[in-house]
Amino acid sequence: MDNVSGPATEQFLQRGRGWMGYPGPGWRRLLVRMPLLYWRLGLKPLMVRARLFRFLVLTTKGRKSGQACHTMLAHFVMDGGIYIGAGWGQRTHWYQNILSDPRVTVQARGPAFGALARLITDDELRRLYWHLRKQGPLWMWKRSLDSWDIRDEVGDFVAKKGRIPFLRLDPLRECPLPPLRTNLVWVWPVLAIAAVAAYVLLR
C-alpha cells in the first residue's frame, strides 16, 4: 500500500532489554496486552483521559489471519491530527499489519471511527519531535531514543526515521474493521454480588 511504503525502510534492531525492549513470549507479552482487558471491562473513560499518556485502541487486519487484531497504543494529538508511533520498530505486529492494509479502526474518546494510516512527512516529523519532547518525562524520551541509537536532536531524529515509524491516522467515513467490544462489563455486578454474599456468610 502506497500510504505506508517508502520512507521507513531501514532495518535496525533495538538495543538493550527491560521495559524499552521488544516483549518476547511469556509474562511480558501478557502484561502488554492487559490494557485491552481493562478496556473490555469498561474502563475506557479512565484510559483515554490518562494524564501522562492518551490511549487508543487500534484495530488492524491481520496480515496472515485476515482477522481483526486489537492493540492499545499511546497516541499524540498535534494540529488536530492523531499520530502513533511503532515503539518497537518495524517488527511491531500492528505496523506489519498496516503495511499489508492501511485501513484501520480507531477507538479513542468518542465513537469508533475508520482511518487510513500513513507515514508522516519529514516536516510533520520535525514538528512531532518538539511536540513529543514536551509531553512525557524527559528521561523516558531520551532512554527510548538511546535504545534506537538516535541522538536527542531533531536532525538525527528525522535522519533515522525508519527506526521508529510514525504514522498519522486520517479519518474515513466508515469503520473497515469491527471495534473492540466492552463485553466484560458484566464482571463488575457479579463481583459485587459475590462480595456481598461473602460478607453475609462470614460475618
SSE string? HHEEEHEEHHHEH
Q: What is the total domain count? A: 1
Low-confidence stretches: 5-9
Could you tell me the CATH topology label. Pnp Oxidase, Chain A
In what order do the strands lie side by side in the largest sheet?
1-2-3-6-5-4
The total of helices stands at 7
Distance between the termini: 64 Å
Instruction: Give the CATH architecture.
Output: Roll
Would you kindly provide a brief summary of this structure?
With 203 residues, the protein is of the alpha+beta class.
Mind explaining what this structure looks like?
- This protein is of the alpha+beta class.
- It has one domain: Pnp Oxidase, Chain A, CATH 2.30.110.
- It is built from seven helices and six strands, in the order ααβββαββαααβα.
- It has a six-stranded antiparallel β-barrel.
- The longest helix has 16 residues.
- It starts with 26 loop residues before the first helix and ends with a helix.
- About 2% of the residues have low confidence.
Show the helix and strand layout.
Blueprint lengths: L26 H14 L3 H5 L5 E8 L6 E11 L2 E5 L7 H8 L2 E5 L5 E7 L2 H14 L2 H10 L6 H6 L6 E6 L15 H16 L1
Antiparallel strand pairs: 1-2, 1-4, 2-3, 3-6, 4-5, 5-6
Q: Which short descriptors sum up this protein?
A:
six-stranded antiparallel β-barrel; 203 residues; 7 helices; Pnp Oxidase, Chain A
